[in-house]
Specification:
By secondary structure, the chain is of the alpha/beta class. The protein has seven helices and nine strands; from the N terminus they run βββαβαβαβαβαβαβα. The longest helix has 14 residues. The radius of gyration is 17 Å and the shape is globular.
């Protein structure tokens, strides 16, 4: 049955977070109800997309993963929002099958839900903290549940646009850093803007002024290809 709503399947080198520089196959689900104001992939919000069955998706992944001199063995599941209830059971089936085929899996989580069935199965979780500039309300109960259960296989990643974003994230760090260690900040780089060099430097300086609590990791794919290029 064709019930996987997929925006695209493509190979690329990870452009952000602690796995930056790692070749992966990305499976981008279509559909998201989170609504970040500074989202760089708004084209994935609508729940309207071509539908595929699991075998179709696996065939596309295998095609992208197979290279002349080797094979990519890491798959990153992203969106849209792959943890939306409409996608949940399909994402879980995909992860289980990918593990049977010898792939390592990562999921990009919006930070608004903890989906135990998927988080228990996936190899790694990139969990967003939605800063004030995103316009998305933070649910601390969800966050606390996440850090208490998945600290051993995850990163927490926040897009930082300004000092308000940084200080909000820092307050969370001060509260939870005794039980959680992988904190990442990414300077905001919005669609259609030139590389925000001054913002990037200011955020690095701000982080250093507090003793460097966070790993500052920019979006490499945007430096190389521009802020509007897709599937890189």
């Amino acid at each position: 049955m064709k019930n996987y709503a997929i925006h695209s399947v493509y190979k690329a080198t990870e452009g952000e977070g602690i796995f930056i520089g790692t070749p992966q196959v990305f499976v981008r689900f279509q559909g998201c109800a989170v609504g970040c104001l500074n989202c760089d992939s708004m084209e994935t919000w609508e729940f309207i997309a071509p539908k595929y069955n699991l075998d179709d998706i696996l065939e596309m992944i295998e095609s992208q993963a197979s290279l002349d001199k080797g094979k990519i063995k890491r798959v990153s599941i992203t969106g849209g929002d792959p943890l939306h209830p409409k996608h949940e059971k399909h994402v879980l089936s995909l992860i289980i099958k990918l593990h049977e085929l010898g792939y390592t899996t990562n999921i990009e989580a919006a930070g608004t839900r903890v989906v135990t069935s998927i988080f228990d199965e996936v190899d790694y979780i990139s969990f967003d903290f939605k800063t004030p500039s995103t316009g998305v309300k933070f649910n601390e109960k969800v966050f606390q549940r996440f850090v208490e259960n998945y600290a051993d296989k995850s990163q927490i990643k926040a897009v930082i646009a300004d000092e308000i974003d940084f200080n909000t994230y820092l307050s969370l760090y001060d509260k939870y850093n005794s039980i959680y260690k992988n904190w990442v900040i990414t300077p905001c780089y919005e669609p259609k803007e030139e590389f925000p060099l001054e913002r990037f430097k200011n955020i690095i300086d701000l982080n250093q002024s507090y003793g460097g609590p966070f790993r500052v990791i920019g979006q490499q794919h945007k430096w190389l290809y521009g802020s509007d290029k897709r599937n890189v």
